[in-house]
Amino acid sequence: MDLGLRYQNGSYCTKEKGSVLFPSFLFYKSLIPIIIRASKKAKKNNYSYEEWVESSLRVVKGLENVGVKFHIDGIDNIKLLDGKPAVIIANHMSTLETFALAGILYPHLRITFVVKKELLEIPVFKHIMISRNPVAVTRENPREDLKKVLEEGTKRIREGYSVVIFPQTTRLYEFDVKEFNSIGVKLAKKAETAILPLALKTDAWQQGKLIKDFGKINPNKEVYFIFGRPVQVKGSGQEEHKEVTRFISENLTKLNVPVKNPNG
Fold first, then answer.
1. At what angle do helices 23-43 and 49-65 cross, to 10 degrees?
2. At 260, is the secondary structure helix, strand, or coil?
């Protein structure tokens, strides 16, 4: 089964699909076997990066099959990195981006994430997350978290992995520039690598009331991943941080996502 996304002129758009009844039920019915199969292999240390990419693409296809439409733009900007790892800085809206990014970015970039330590404790799913060797932070001690991100993030980049960072403290359906910290810029500066800005709108996968990660699937909300041109950090990084937040703010505004404090 060919799961790869076919890009044209640096973009991808889901072909029109008909609506289905009970999209949440049908999607999770397809998602659960993907997670269980991947978790079993990861628990045995037998879950390769390529298998993770396949799982990621199956999730994307699963969402498309229940009527969710994807728009992915700026793939040509990723190619400007010439295969070199980067720090990917994005807003964080839902669980969707965590599942989808590996498939979207392959074969251009291999990635890992900066994640909350609690994600490594969720039954079944934790084996998958641990197998991807993420940088886990507690969000209890900002100074210690920064130190860990800089040290371990730089190590991952030296190993050839791009590091995805969501500087917001939590997933939000709006974007608040003042709450968007500069930890990603600091990592890019220390690792002497580029930043790849990413504006995303993924509220088609809503937050759950009982389990935050698994909420309602709403096919009426279209999904957007918009990659900007690579940004090289010079000097303190303050101007580059403003450039990244400006890119995200402007694109989210076009998508009618609420943006607070656009001037920082």
1. 170
2. strand
